[in-house]
Amino acid sequence: MTIEELYGIYLKYPSVQTDTRKLSAGDLYFALKGPSFNGNNFAKQALEKGAVYAIIDEKEYATDDRMIVVRNTLETLQQLARHHREQFNVPVIAITGSNGKTTTKELIHAVLSSTYKTYTTKGNLNNHIGIPITLLSIKDDVEMAVIEMGANHQKEIENYCKYALPTHGLITNCGKAHLEGFGGIEGVRKAKGELFDFLRENKGTAFIMNDYDYLRRMSNSISTVITYGTNEADVVGRLSEMEPFLSIFIEKGADIDLLKTHLVGDYNLPNILAAITIGKFFRVKEENIKMAIETYHPSNSRSQLIERNGSKFVLDAYNANPSSMKVAIENFARMHSDNKILMLGGMAELGESSLEEHEELIQLINQYEWKDVILVGGDFLKTKNQFKKFENSADAAQWFREQKFEDVSILIKGSRSMQMEKVME
User: Fold this and answer.
1) Mind giving me the DSSP string for 220-289?
2) Domain boundary residue among 71, 105, 125?
3) What is the pTM of this model?
């Protein structure tokens, strides 16, 4: 079966599912495979649960006329997504970077949605499976699309661009994330820069934080570059207030003046400026930009400020790497509170530099005064210091409950594998 023929089926049944546990009647089931699972095993079950067709890539499972056998199910899913993407001529904005991707994506989506029918990545579906599923969720009424791209090795973003075909792009930053797969900070820039390479080759538009000299270099010779930052840029903004939430004053590029958000952490300033810049570029009214950003509330353990029992929790536990840990700790240290507690989970995917990066964070922590410091799991357990250590977040949560803290401020952060949000359960 050709992609065009499969696309004809998709147009009749435009709902794609790869997990039988989430499947609904009328879905197309794609039997994907991984190191510990084989979706072909569940093709029959998918049909029994109401899938109209099951796309599989192992012939021995083809026991029903509604099973479509292809050479490779994942590649077919991606090819179908590209074919669908080619059917609409609208701006597609791709977002990648080491930190702040999802928050930036959500802010941009909020701004653009105030004016245009905008589709975007749901949650954190930003990989080789999530991106094609996002593309296939786009309907005929689309006017804009915002696609988040995550990566942990070279050539990954290059491949995403082959079927997402972005017309515009933004790299939030290039920090110390996934060093094991990228091979160092230069490897991070090379991998993230694959988005700019695609825009350069296809006469696209890049949005860059002009404060970062490496992004200026990486965007060199792209046909259109729009800048934002705190000094020289098309849109210029600065922090007005940090507590309890960020307030931003726009000095150039948008007639907004003071903008009050529900985000914590001065590291969110570039994310907010990116959303304003893209809104202005696409001629969203300034009052709509302001309202969209001011009414946005973070969720899913990202830059959330939660008050409970007289204490304040900065919950930023969705993920962590050396760069995001550093700015989170420094930002928390600047907050006005006499009783600050750090609860930090270990960082993953750092390869040979992992222990060194954890030790550097210990040095940073020692520069400030804290009521308490709690380190959880990973290579934090290998560091030598006077702080409390726990094997996992469940043990740390038990200790925390027993303390019955009152009137404290607590930063909770760690890699996804640490599940540091359990401390608040």
Assistant:
1) TT-SEEEEEESSSSSEEEEEEE-SSS-EEEEEESSTT-EEE-S--SGGGHHHHHHHHHHHHHTT--HHHH
2) 71
3) 0.88
